[in-house]
Design goal:
With 355 residues, this protein is α/β, with parallel strands linked by helices. The protein has helices spanning 12-29, 43-49, 55-63, 87-94, 158-173, 189-203, 216-225, 237-250, 288-304, 308-326, 340-352; strands at residues 2-6, 35-38, 66-69, 99-105, 119-125, 142-146, 149-152, 178-183, 210-215, 232-235, 260-262, 267-270. The structure holds 3-isopropylmalic acid and manganese (II) ion (MN).
Length: 355
């Protein structure tokens, strides 16, 4: 398996270095023959090439079997036409990675922010919605009408709703068989009623899966009050972006939030958190979301190629993550005292203890 690794901005190089060591150690242990090739995107690439991402990089990535993308500083980016492109969006759009899959669960040994234990997945549409740089073929769907008036458009299509709904039901079928649709159909009546209808139509193919739905604002209260009532939550792009930060923080920390951005032929592992420039270079960032994202990538590859060893490797990565958390071998943000790079050593030690 050829994986392109892009460390990214801020804490990215530190957390991705841990992830590299983890990937190479499981590759050796499970004989996966993983090859990592490092490329740059984001601020480093902007300095070197004048653009945060390039078409040459996209071509290299397309030739690989998967991508690990580090966090990107996006807030200060200028105009896309001047090369200041948001790399996350660039890869999601250009590789058609339509399913943004974000598990959030509590871990024994870690302090969670709610009383209940829970285990849920947010399945977020990734290619349209309220994302001005993604939902039009060229240009942006955000327009400055007069210096004081802006219009930002949200695109919802049957095709994208159908495929994201199907991703959610497939996941639910192998879990607690429950899909929750999150929407704002009381206000976005046409678009979000279409989203709900399509989810129900797709749901007919999965008769064992129970379906319910919540309006997005009320959902914030429900998920805080009773996160254990949810299994798979399916929603449009921006609602899912916001909700998934909440669910990961409820589980203990945004630093635990792994993501898989999956399309039909390609997938990208990417932590759900940002580049955290305030703690960059201090060796204290939590690398677990990166490790969990990498485990998801190996699992995706294993399912795609029907490879038991990739699936076993991904399960071992999850298992070791659990063990490290249970024994308090974690970074300070979740109550431990290990440095970022010490997580790699702890992981490898735990891996060697397995027969
Ligand atoms: C995420 C991020 C991105 C998004 C940003 C970096 C564009 O918040 O992956 O959740 O909004 O999708
Ligand atoms: Mn986000």
């Amino acid at each position: 398996m050829k994986i392109v690794v892009i460390p990214g901005d801020g804490i990215g190089p530190e957390t991705m270095a841990v992830c590299d060591e983890v990937l190479l150690s499981v590759s050796k242990r499970f004989e996966l023959n993983i090859e990592l090739s490092h490329e740059s995107a984001g601020q480093e690439s902007l300095k070197k090439t004048g653009a945060t991402v390039t078409t040459e990089l996209l071509e290299k990535v397309k030739k690989a079997d998967g991508l690990m993308l580090g966090p990107m500083s996006t807030l200060e980016l200028g105009q896309a036409s001047k090369g200041e492109i948001n790399a996350s969006l660039f890869f999601r759009k250009n590789l058609d990675l339509y399913a943004n899959i974000r598990p959030a669960k509590t871990y024994p040994g870690l302090t969670k922010r709610v009383q209940q234990d829970f285990d849920l997945i947010v399945v977020r549409e990734n290619t349209e919605g309220f994302y001005a740089d993604r939902n039009v073929e060229s240009g942006s769907s955000e327009m400055l009408i007069t210096p004081d008036v802006v219009i930002s458009l949200r695109r919802i299509t049957r095709h994208c709703c159908e495929r994201i709904a199907r991703s959610a039901f497939i996941l639910a079928q192998n879990r607690k068989k429950h899909v929750t649709i999150v929407h704002k159909a009381n206000v976005l009546k046409i678009a979000d009623n279409m989203f709900i209808d399509i989810c129900h139509q797709v749901g007919k193919e999965f008769p064992d899966v129970r379906i319910d739905d919540f309006i997005v604002d009320a959902m914030m209260a429900h998920v805080v009050r009773a996160p254990d009532q949810f299994d798979v939550i399916v929603t449009t792009n921006m609602f899912g972006d916001i909700l998934s930060d909440l669910t990961s923080e409820l589980s203990g920390s945004l630093g635990l939030a792994g993501t898989l951005n999956a399309g039909i032929d390609f997938a990208m592992g990417q932590a759900a958190h940002g580049s955290a420039p305030d703690i960059a270079g201090k060796n204290i960032a939590n690398p677990f979301s990166q490790i969990i994202s990498a485990a998801m990538l190996l699992n995706w590859y294993g399912q795609k190629h029907d490879s038991k060893s990739f699936i076993a490797a991904s399960q071992a990565m999850e298992q070791i993550t659990l063990e490290l958390m249970k024994s308090g071998q974690v970074t300070p943000d979740v109550g431990g005292n290990l440095k970022t790079d010490e997580i790699a050593k702890a992981f490898i030690k735990q891996l060697q203890m397995k027969n």
